[in-house]
Amino acid sequence: MRINKVMTLGAALTLAFSITACGSNNNAQTNNAEPTPAPSTEVVATPEEVVDPGLQPEDGATLIVWESREERAFTDEIAKQFEEKYNVTVKVEEVPATDQVTKLTQDGPSGLGADIVMFPHDNLGRAVVAGLLLENDVFGEETIKNNTEASIQGVTVDGKLYGYPRAAETYALFYNKDLVKEAPKSFDDVIAFSKTFTDKSKNRYGIMWETGNMYFNYPFIATDGGYIFGEKGTKKDDIGINNDGAIAGLQTFVKLKEALPIKSGDITPDIKRSLFNAGDVAMDITGPWELAGYKEALGDKLGIAPIPTINGKPAISFSGIKAFYVNSFTQYPNAAKLFANFASSKEAQLILNEKVGSVPTNLEALEADQIKNDPLVAGFALQVINSNPMPIIPEMNNTWTPVGAALTEIWDNNKDPKEMMDKAAQQIKDLNDGVTK
Q1: Do 374 and 230 have their domain in common?
Q2: Transport: present as a keyword of the record (predicted)?
Q3: 310 and 425 assigned to the same domain
């Protein structure tokens, strides 16, 4: 898909989020080391202008925040600023975003959970069903006014707002401009390039991505008409991972083994990152959490483009919203709500972009020069236009393991895609129905 180059990034992002429903990342938690922030050319204000409707932290309040490893640099900074403004001590603990709801389910009722958690929106449904979160009530009107419609939808369940959106995410094609002169338009182009570059004996590959992870492989399921759940992810009994469109798209997945002739288990975020930084992987399908580190390693050699087309169609990726939430079991709900609002403001989202490379949800942040003038962030804006939000229903949690296992069998052992996806669909149905075997 080609977009007129005079379109501003702010306009592209606004369009993207107006035509997608709601969404966040992911089952794609990575284990990369904390990125070293690139020097900023724009002075980013601290979140001093956050509206405070008279809410004050409780006497003696202290807060714990769970944060993913790759975004720790941002939360450490924002916690410091919050402490300076409110005189409330904030401790940041590393917990993978995709593990936080499970951990909160275990630790929340006993008082051991964090006061503020952060996770992608596809986990929200089960967190709400379990009674783990307080509504975003005090700052709800402000949150709705300041953020994209899609991000608000992504953190809302049954008409109730729970989240404080901080970033929109999808993944895209990172490429090394020294190795790939022009971003490939199709996966056929990727395969053609890889024939000239891939050499397994030298541990060198034209492209790499996590082939056993449904999050990154959703384009092969969805682009030709497959889906996870029907009716825009709301109908648990309508499973579309094994329909004709999904199987057609997975034929491209199978062909790509020629470009990446290694087992799924040998592709980890750390391995992939190391090879890409060293120039031994020319292209990587990943998300904005890698942006700061890849910019530091490659500099001007780094390019970002939409995912190549599949069977002549623009690749459809998963999209999502990452947001803060307040633990319903917190001893300090006032302080926790203040922090969640403070850490998701316009200024905070610009700091998050600077530290990590994330795409803001705040409408004013999207119009900031820091965002509009960044061609790398623009690459994600183009991809998010062709993205589907991850389903928010609790049954989404039942999909990752069966589909991941099916993809691994297809990739590693040349199993038939239809057979494997039929099996995964049945496993998901059984889990949804509470069937144990």
Answers
A1: no
A2: yes
A3: yes
How are beta strands 317-327 and 164-169 bridged, if at all? Answer: antiparallel
Shared-domain flag, residues 332 and 358: yes
pLDDT tens digit sequence for 156-192: 988 999 999 999 989 999 999 999 999 999 999 999 9
Q: Which helix (H) or strand (E) holds 322?
A: strand 317-327
In this structure, the answer to whether residues 207 and 227 fall within a common structural domain is yes
Question: Domain check: are 331 and 254 in the same one?
Answer: no
Sequence-distant (≥ 6) Cβ neighbours of residue 60 within 8 angstroms: none
Strands (E), 12-128: 62-67, 89-94, 116-120
As a whole number, mean pLDDT of residues 130-148 equals 97
Give the tokens for residue 199.
């050499």
- pTM metric for this prediction: 0.72
- So what's the pLDDT on residue 297? 96
Backbone angles phi, psi at 150, to 5 degrees: -65, -40
* Residues in contact with 317: Cβ distance below 8 Å, sequence separation at least 6, in sequence order: 170, 171, 172, 218, 219, 307, 383, 384, 386, 387, 388
Question: Does residue 298 fall inside a structural domain?
Answer: yes
DSSP per residue, 326-356: EETT-S-HHHHHHHHHHTTSHHHHHHHHHHH
Are 188 and 282 within one domain? yes
pLDDT, tens digit (0-9, with 9 covering 90-100), for 245-275: 999 999 999 999 999 999 999 999 999 999 9
**Looking at the structure, do residues 148 and 108 belong to the same domain, yes or no?**
yes
The answer to whether position 99 is within a domain reads yes
Residue 118 DSSP SS3: strand
> Rg of the Cα trace of the chain?
21
Smallest CA-to-CA distance from 301 within 192, 429, 178, 410 is with 178
Give the CA count within 13 Å in the CB-facing half-sphere of 422: 6
Structural domain range at position 85: 9-169+319-389
For residues 349 and 71, the answer to whether their CB atoms sit within 8 Å is no
